[in-house]
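Lecture 7 notes: from sequence to structure.

We start with a single chain of 99 residues. Read the sequence below before looking at the structure.
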Amino acid sequence: MSRRCELTGKGALVGHTVSHSNIKTKRRFLPNLVNVTLQSDALGRGVRLRICANALKSVDHRGGLDAFLMKAGDADLSPRALLLKKQIVKKLAAPAAAS
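Now the structure, written as tokens:
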């Protein structure tokens, strides 16, 4: 399992730990990933995702998983999140086409 957020694409970064004597040692900065179950209003079910805490705040700020995915670019989303986005778009387009 990669250390990458499924919604924002945020991954590990590389940098240095700098000691008092200015010795630089390589290290990795890992994203704060959490396993969460988010509710999709359009699909009517919960979706398990591995996202960073920052993305969790963004989902809440935008008004839920559906709104976040509709606004998110396809390049940042994981294949699972892209599939979810397509399902939501299809589900939201179905009632509009029926009326």
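The domain at 13-92 is CATH 2.30.170.40 (Ribosomal Protein L24e; Chain: T;). Keep this in mind for problem set 3.
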